[in-house]
Protein 1
Amino acid sequence: MKSITVFCGSSFGAEEIYREQAFLLGQTLAKQNIQLIYGGADVGLMGAVADGTLSENGKVTGVLPHFLQSNEIAHKNLTELILVETMHERKTKMNDLCDGVIVLPGGYGTLEEFFEMITWAQLGLHKKPIGVLNIDGFYNDLMSLVQNMVDKGFLKQVNRDMLLISENIDDLLEKMRNYEPPTVGKWISKEEV
């Protein structure tokens, strides 16, 4: 993996461990020569993961819609800042630039980005690993809900198994490196979308 997209909150959350782990993830990516692709902001966990990468002289590409840049939240020290028109264009560009995705704690926006990426993978639109860094058990309840989807017949186990989850950065990155996408048939092709 040469580049990883990180989706995460634009706030720090209630516990200091979220900021600490976001910063450490950024440092770890830089030390492993993995470029960070993220939302381009200098606020919350987004800023922390970028700052962590930059602190180890890593490469950071931010992708930010013009309307958010005008709110003065753009990070000023990135390797590259790509400006786009819409939130959907932002996600598409971030997907195009990366070899994998990591999700940190966040709110509605983070969940929306996460579920779009895993849905695209389920549909066969990409074969990239999607990792959840489950800091301090943040995503335990969500993982229970996903398992309930399997138990109730709304999600296949093979698609549940596409989600890689760990509370440890190095362990998560190792799972992502060893990821084998499912070989089940695709419902649609990329050209049909």
Protein 2
Amino acid sequence: MTDHLIVTDENTMRVIRLRRPEKKNAITHDMYRRMSDAIDTAQNDPHIRCIIITGESGVFTAGNDIEDFLKDSTSNADTPRDSNAVKFLYSLAHNVKPIIAAVDGVAIGIGTTMLFHCDYVLASTTATFSTPFIHLGLVPEGASSLLMPRTMGYQRAFATLVMGRTMTADDALIAGFVNVVVAPGHTEAEARKVAREICALPAEAVAISRKLLKLPPEDLTRRIDQESHLFGERMRSNEAIAAFKAFFTRKKG
């Protein structure tokens, strides 16, 4: 359903809003595709100076739709991972416009890993961050195995990516991937203030400086491809299939 993702242009900002509250904004194939398109079409639009990614109903995103995960794990398709998810990750890797994330509530899986591609992250005091890939028999994705140790150190990355420990907003602030913590319900408003501040700066100087600060896109896509191949293999593993079935058993119980 296209109304699960709302894209609006407001002056020099493009706002991408996840709106699937009944599923905690879990991301479907269609939502991945539309987020990717929203980012890609902003690249050569001189009127769009900044991108905001946010959620609704006090939730950022519960990550990939788990039913899609299960379908992919039992599919006979010989593909590394769903192409819509990978396309979205490629869009993040190649993006040249500053991205601000406004995280209110849970950010699970790709809800956390996408933040390491963003330039400025705001979180509410109720925000939590978790990457339970290994608990599902999977591996990290989104170039997180490259970006997370680089941002917050190997030990924190291991505890988060491998052990699956949840981080609070204050933990994330200390770890260095959240810029500021605000009151619940205020992340989007504060993100707009940050966006206006960035949009007021000389655009070319921002673009050049941003490029200097970030890893080359080819480094990111190389790691995305490596992770994606392993992710696809793991989705069809006995460990992952058993973990998914156990997840749904607990969910129905």
Protein 3
Amino acid sequence: MPRVTITALDPRAVKRCVAFLVRRDWALHLGLAALLAGIPMRPSAVAAEAPAAAQPQAALIASLQSRVLAAHSATLALESWCADHKLAGDPHLVARRMDVADKPLSPAQRARLAIGPDEPVRYRRVRLACGDRVLSEADNWYVPARLTPEMNATLDGTRTPFGRVVRPLEPTRQTIAVRPFPQAAATGPDDPLFEIDAVLSTGAGQPFCEVAETYLGGALPEASR
């Protein structure tokens, strides 16, 4: 029977060999798991996600809509969107009051706000801007008796967004309607993306405001428009 001679191995070579086998075994397990889950494997396990500006326009619009619908405050949702997509150096919104005629509430709106036909309601239309970008326009009907005097004074005398003013009420949003707009290949900054109607209630469940919001192309990163 032939004799087998075992020569000494270089410890560094052994380490490299073991590391290779571990990586190969890990990759095989990862590939098998992805295959079973129906997930396509990336060319590189460390490949970075595509930047938001490189995403298709439709995907960005859907992402913005989902963020607003999931939020308790459209103001906070837009400010986080502005910060995430670096739309301005300062992501805080400013409410630019528009000089428009008053829009009375319909009976259905008064019913949603749980107020009678004679309850005073204030109306304002604003453009919410992040830096020099206007992200949305909104009709806002609110019951001043359900806000504090300080909140009413701030809304009357400043450009603070409604959502930031009423934050101490711990508001929640109930979506009434969502209306998408057909999108052109190139969306301008003033082109509407979608509309959302919602009722805002206090943390205790008392409705105090109804909004009709139109989100605009100015909310999209430049490269996607």
Protein 4
Amino acid sequence: MTYVEGFLTPVPTANKAEYIKHAHSAIDLFKGLGATRFVEAWGDDVPDGKVNDLKQSVGLKDDETVLFSWLEYPDKATRDAANEKMMSDPNALEGMKDMPFDGSRMIFAGFEALVDTGPATTAPGYVDGYVLPVPTAKRDAYHALAARMAPVFQAHGALRVVEAWADDTPDGSVTDYNRATHKRADESVVYAWIEWPDKAARDAAWAAIMADDSNREPEPPFDGQRMMWGGFAPILDTAKA
């Protein structure tokens, strides 16, 4: 099953072109380390939350935009080996010195896919990304809900749905997934996304899904108030190659 390295990154909006150039320069590195896909998606429709949100998660400033990005690996062993090689590669470390964003506020962690439907080779025009805390004891219940909803999204035009369960979510010096979701000791973090052909298809799908009462879960197995989500426009996707 797919292993995901999921990122949330605050980037000065004025540095968008520089960031895209920086991200493209890392494609060969990640491919060489075994990554099967690399996606960077620019915040487009990221709402404020009552408790938390994706912008707060990275301490976003007024002149910054939050990115939802991920690397896909065939398995955890490949990802772990990739990270170990990067940390010992002088060229990789040199490239991290001149990043066009505040790396101390970038969040990253490893996740194991629970649900992965649809091809990973079709590049979407739009992505819904979401992060949420789920009681660890309710993993099976959450998996069942995610597996039930994935074909609903696809029936309304989604290209792919991925739901990934926390495997390695380290604490950060400034922020991290644990703090961003207000995760409790008995909870785990989920990192997930839905790939759409474009924003219009996404908007139409959500309107139809929300209007259908059969899609509502009486008692969802997580605290919806702490779920963070947003819409993102891909600025790099190796699937396009």
